[in-house]
Specification:
The complex is a heterodimer of chains A (368) and B (290). Chain A has three domains: 83 residues, no CATH class; 184 residues, von Willebrand factor, type A domain (Rossmann fold), CATH 3.40.50; 38 residues, no CATH class. Helices cover 44% and strands 13% of the residues of chain A. Chain A is built from 15 helices and nine strands. In chain A, α1 packs parallel to α5, α7 crosses α9 and α12 packs parallel to α13. Chain B is α/β, with parallel strands linked by helices. Chain B has a five-stranded parallel β-sheet with strand order 2-5-8-1-9, sandwiched between helices. In chain B, strands 3-4 form a two-stranded antiparallel ribbon. A two-stranded antiparallel ribbon of chain B has the order 6-7. In chain B, a hairpin with a 3-residue loop joins β6 and β7. The chains are: A alpha/beta (368), B alpha/beta (290).
Chain lengths: 368, 290
């Protein structure tokens, strides 16, 4: 038999392992016990899961915790969980590495780190991402918000009333007609609300992108938080969806959540495999009103055929396929890697993304 | 297991819906606690079927709201019947009624077109089953509005006033996960996930829904479908496709499933050209032999 105190402890353990449980849900869970057979372990499991897990993504963690909860002391479980969460990921490369060194990664002397896309001038717009200050990071967020505003400029199926238009708003017109004894003299109009474009951003965070991923993620964060219809992903050797992690009030907290959920990444890149994984789950959500942006330098350790196959599927469905390559900022760079060669014929827009000016130049491409 | 859960399972089976303990428990809790049930899962696994089977089992009316992008309150909740209003005003042109009286007349319940949500709230006989299908296809604004309706089952129409549900409808929401639903909506609902069925369960479904099919053929159909789902396809076939295929095979009076018949009927379960090509390649090397 389960007591309320046990249930509360269980919910606390769920919270510790990342399943967000609100007090209201705890109350619902408590009510559940009054209407189910609490001696049937399966029924308790299924019932609690349907109340406390709000997505199938929570199922594995829930099942694990449920099993542990019923076989060992819950207090111990909570403590153990806290310890693992606080333990830093050791020896991780790529995104994890940059996340850990996020705060102190800006060079003290302010000199740009030497990278292929580095520019000679010191003006903010052209300065390479690798030498950015905190104020300039804020500028990136502002830019992302501006870009996002452009996304909402086409008519949708929703209506809104306007002074003059092509479609008569019957509801308002009828109301107006009452003043003139039921005669329709003054017509009210309506027009379509702006249509919204969806955005899928897939960001390469492998070792070779280290210098850029910090800033590009800031851009992705900006996009994500000013516009509900952005889905974000990161990949090195495998793909992770980070939409949920980025939805946070401050970038720092978003980064904290991100690093907690994806440590232990390796430095290699498998673009083709990652995009294939993306397609397997998300391709059917891509349509002609979707823009797909891939942020990567094109250094792929996998087979170029796989990359080409994945990209052609994407191209067939997406409204626009954009590949942003920070290396393109260097005038001497040639997209000669096998991966890039395979990808080029399938991309609608191939553009640099190594500084603010290049992100600004992106704006017109984000309107379908 | 609680007797009510077993009973729900039995009732659904009478409706030829093969329900496992998880589904039955979720439905039972949804009814016992009066909370909406959110069902997620890939396309074609029978999410919508649950609501239909539930309505039939309860002998309740099924009210369905199909969501799409741009769905708004005039399609989901209510709309005024403008032609009728205009006609009424014309007929009453010479009547001595004041403007206010005329307004009250044309904005009354008899001029109201009830859309699914209002229908569900004003159903007088018994609690209906309200199916809000593919909620992920509606936009965020509509979701927020829906949340309001689902929390107190009452609707305020400015001209008429507040209408409160006589019977709390049994609400089932389905989602293909094409976008993230808001946390608020998720928390308001009980949650259930349906995945592609196991081989045993799928065979059971085929035998139940296509009774004319031979036992051996049904087993073959199921095993081919299970193998197909392990391939990397752009659109993985669901149970609906399995049933379409089984029905087609019965109509063609097929008794066994050889490569030839499979090749002729691929279109029943694969709807994408690239998928069909990669399936054919596997078929040619004998992957789907019995």
């Amino acid at each position: 038999m389960i007591q309320i105190e046990e249930l509360v402890r269980f919910c606390r353990a769920l919270r510790e392992s990342g399943i967000h449980v609100t007090p209201a849900e705890v109350i619902t869970a408590a009510t559940v016990f009054q209407v189910i057979d609490t001696s049937d372990r399966d029924e308790v499991f299924l019932s609690l899961r349907s109340v406390l897990a709000t997505s199938v993504d929570d199922f594995p963690a829930f099942a694990e915790l449920f099993d542990e909860f019923w076989s060992q002391s819950p207090r111990k479980l909570v403590e153990r969980d806290v310890i693992t969460r606080n333990a830093p990921a050791k020896g991780a490369k790529g995104l994890a590495f940059f996340l850990e060194h996020w705060a102190n990664s800006l060079r003290a002397d302010g000199k740009p780190i030497n990278v292929p896309g580095a520019s000679d001038t010191e003006s903010g717009a052209e300065k390479d991402f690798s030498a950015f200050t905190n104020e300039e990071l804020e500028e990136i967020s502002r830019l992302a918000r501006r870009v996002v505003k452009r996304l909402a400029s086409k008519p949708s199926r929703r209506w809104r009333p306007v002074r003059r238009g092509h479609k008569v708003n019957l509801r308002r017109s009828l109301r107006l007609s009452l003043k003139t004894g039921g005669e329709l003299i003054d017509l009210a109009y309506k027009q379509r609300r702006p249509k919204r474009t969806r955005l899928f951003v897939i960001c390469d965070v492998s070792g070779s992108m280290d210098l850029y991923s910090r800033l590009l993620l800031q851009f992705v964060y900006g996009l994500q938080n000013s516009f509900a219809r952005v889905e974000s992903f990161v990949f090195a050797t495998s793909l992770s969806r980070i939409t949920g992690e980025l939805k946070n009030k401050t970038y720092q907290r978003a980064l904290d959540r991100l690093s907690a959920s994806i440590h232990g990444w390796s430095g290699g890149t498998r673009i083709g495999a990652s995009l294939a994984a993306f397609n397997a789950q998300w391709l059917r959500r891509i349509d002609k009103r979707t823009i797909v942006i891939i942020l990567s330098d094109g250094w792929d350790t996998g087979e170029p055929e796989q990359l080409a196959a994945a990209l052609s599927l994407l191209k067939a469905r997406a409204g626009r396929l954009i590949w942003l390559n920070p290396l393109l900022g260097n005038t001497t760079y040639q997209p000669a890697t096998r991966g890039m060669q395979a990808a080029l014929p399938l991309i609608d827009v191939f553009a640099p993304a190594h500084d603010l000016a290049s992100l600004r130049a992106l704006e017109p491409h984000l309107v379908l | 297991m609680r007797e009510e859960v077993k009973q729900i399972q039995r009732l659904l089976e009478e409706q030829i819906y093969i329900a496992d303990a998880a589904v039955a428990t979720a439905l039972y809790l949804s009814m016992a606690l009066g909370k909406p049930l959110l069902i997620e899962g890939p396309a074609g696994v029978g999410k919508t079927e649950i609501a239909k089977a539930l309505a039939n089992a309860l002998g309740a009316r099924l009210i369905r709201l199909q969501c799409y992008e741009g769905l708004d309150t005039t399609t989901a909740l209510y709309e005024w019947n403008y032609p009728k209003q205009l006609l009424h005003l014309k007929l009453e042109e010479s009547s001595p009624a004041s403007e206010a009286e005329k307004e009250a007349a044309i904005f009354s319940e008899s001029f109201l077109l009830k859309r699914p949500l209002l229908q569900a709230i004003t159903e007088h006989e018994r609690a209906p089953v309200l199916l809000i299908d593919e909620i992920d296809r509606s936009d965020e604004e509509f979701e927020a509005f829906l949340l309001e309706v689902l929390s107190d089952f009452q609707v305020t129409i400015p001209e008429i006033g507040t209408i409160k549900a006589t019977h709390r409808p049994h609400v089932v929401l389905t989602s293909n996960r094409s976008r993230d639903l808001s946390d608020a909506l998720r928390r308001r609902c009980l949650y259930h996930w349906i995945d592609y069925p196991s081989a045993e369960k799928e065979l059971e479904i085929v035998r139940a829904r296509v009774p004319a099919i031979e036992a051996g053929l049904a087993a073959r159909v199921t095993s081919v479908m299970q193998a197909t789902r392990t391939m990397s396809l752009s659109k993985i076939p669901g149970v609906a496709e399995t049933l379409d295929w089984a029905n087609a095979l019965v109509a063609l009076q097929a008794t066994e499933l050889n490569s030839e018949i499979i090749a002729e009927t691929i279109g029943c379960f694969l709807k994408d050209e690239a998928d069909i090509a990669s399936f054919r390649a596997e078929l040619d090397v004998g992957r789907f032999e019995g």
